Automatic annotation (TrEMBL):
Highest taxon above the source species: Bacteria
PROSITE patterns in the record: PROKAR_LIPOPROTEIN
Protein name, entry field: DUF3826 domain-containing protein
Native source organism of the sequence: Dyadobacter fanqingshengii
Annotated signal peptide: 1-20
A Pfam family hit: DUF3826
InterPro entries: DUF3826
Sorted UniProt keywords: Signal
Length: 196
């Protein structure tokens, strides 16, 4: 054994032998993690048919795994990501109702869309229908992109960008976002202090 190999294997340099052995374990751990995550998301759908449940879970786990591999690959392209997304949504749609597919999308993105939409409509109760529609449109677009993010941080970053866009849009429509937020916080505080 050469000096470099010895240094690698005693921990002074990265050992390719240990790396090769640990990769399958880390891949199995990742699959176990995304399987649990998929089960948690699917629990809300209450799918009674166990065969369908397992089929949908396999689709979800494969998507997580494919996105993880793509993120690690040298040739990460937006086109490949878009193809994976389109195929994934198509597979889900072949097994589930549109409402169930929406729940999976929300689950994969930590429910940021419905929570954020509700926050905007609660914060600014005077929003017009067209403004609500625009907010929902941008949050939906953000969710579609965030679904393909490899990490929680990456998913939240996508939503952050769209929240900035929404805030700019609302400011352009004459809303003072800071003032609206202060008023909303005061309403929430009053609501809580009244024991509700």
């Amino acid at each position: 054994m050469k000096l470099k190999q010895i240094l690698m294997c005693i921990g002074l340099l990265a050992c390719p032998l240990l790396k090769a052995q640990s990769q399958p374990d880390s891949e199995q751990a990742y699959i176990a993690t995304v399987t649990k995550r998929s089960d948690k998301i699917l629990a809300e759908l209450q799918i009674a048919d166990s065969v369908k449940y397992k089929r949908v879970r396999e689709i979800m786990v494969k998507q997580y795994s494919d996105l993880n591999k793509l993120q690690k690959s040298e040739e990460q392209t937006e086109q490949k990501r878009a193809e994976l997304h389109k195929h994934y949504v198509s597979q889900l749609a072949s097994q589930l109702t549109p409402a169930q597919v929406e729940k999976i999308k929300d689950g994969m993105t930590y429910g940021v869309l419905p929570v954020t939409y509700k926050a905007y409509t609660d914060m600014i109760p005077t929003l017009k229908d067209e403004e609500k529609s625009q907010i929902m449109s941008w949050l939906t677009e953000a969710r579609e992109l965030a679904m393909d993010g490899g990490s929680s941080e990456e998913k939240h970053k996508v939503f952050g960008k769209y929240k900035g866009r929404i805030n700019n849009y609302l400011s352009g429509r004459g809303y003072n976002i800071q003032e609206e937020r202060k008023n909303w916080e005061a309403r929430m505080k009053a609501f809580k202090s009244n024991g509700r």
